[in-house]
Design brief:
This protein is an alpha/beta fold and 198 residues long. The chain has 7 helices and 7 strands, in the order E-H-H-E-H-E-H-E-H-E-H-E-E-H. The chain has a single domain, classed as Formyl transferase, N-terminal domain (Rossmann fold, 3-Layer(aba) Sandwich), CATH 3.40.50.170. It has a 7-stranded mixed sheet, with helices on both faces. Strand 4, helix 5 and strand 5 form a beta-alpha-beta unit. Helix 6 crosses helix 7. The protein is globular. The chain starts with a strand and ends with a helix. 5-O-phosphono-beta-D-ribofuranosylamine binds next to helix 1, strand 5 and helix 7.
Length: 198
């Protein structure tokens, strides 16, 4: 069984899109994969309730209760490892992870970032794309390495920047693409790792 653990901090719309795709596209039968748990650093993350309605286990590791990033990441890793994950998916998880955490899940830790990386790593990607006069923006799914918003690119989708766009309208258009791209990229990863099996 390939267990997938999804980490969120907020609304969890990407997580919900992944959960829906897993059900709709029968990831269990096709890849022997299931969403084993959703873990949040915030108890109030809206995505936790969505996960529960799909019968998925949830856990909260509140980062504010830990004195250091290392201590938080250690507790987070414990919550994640409880589900023996084949893949750890960052979906709107808004904490920078320590090299220790990233190294522990090397090759099985993926993230979605709302820009066409390597352009605009970090925050406020949509406003920065508009300010730079970009004609296209987009979204990237990538493997996580110790450098923030870097790492091998797994998939990208392009979205036009329209003349009247604000950061909010552009973000909405990009988010709709995120919901298509992330489940597809994960399914491709699962198919790839299944085909390497003896
Ligand atoms: C997404 O735009 C994601 O790319 C970014 O944060 C947003 C999270 O949205 N890092 P949601 O929690 O998946 O709804």
């Amino acid at each position: 069984m390939k267990n997938i653990v999804i980490l969120i901090s907020g609304g969890g719309s990407n997580m919900a899109a992944i959960v829906r795709a897993a059900e709709r596209d029968r990831w269990l039968e096709r890849f022997g994969a299931r969403i084993a748990a959703v873990v949040s650093n915030k108890a109030e993350a809206g995505g936790l309730a969505i996960a529960r309605t799909h019968g998925i286990e949830t856990a909260v590791v509140p980062h504010k209760e830990f004195a250091t990033r290392e201590a938080f990441d250690e507790a987070l890793a414990k919550a994640v490892d409880a589900h023996s994950p084949a893949l750890v998916v960052l979906a709107g998880f808004m904490r920078i992870l320590t090299p220790g955490f990233v190294g522990r899940y090397a090759g099985r830790l993926v993230n979605i970032h709302p820009s066409l990386l390597p352009a605009f790593p970090g925050l406020n990607t949509h406003q920065r794309a508009i300010d730079a006069g970009c004609k296209v923006a987009g979204v990237t799914v990538h493997q996580v390495t110790t450098e923030l918003d870097h790492g091998p690119i797994l998939a990208q989708a392009v979205v036009p920047v329209l003349p009247d766009d604000t950061a909010a309208t552009l973000a909405g258009r990009v988010l709709a693409q995120e919901h298509q791209l992330y489940p597809r990229a994960i399914a491709a990863w699962l198919a790839d790792t299944s085909s390497h099996k003896p």
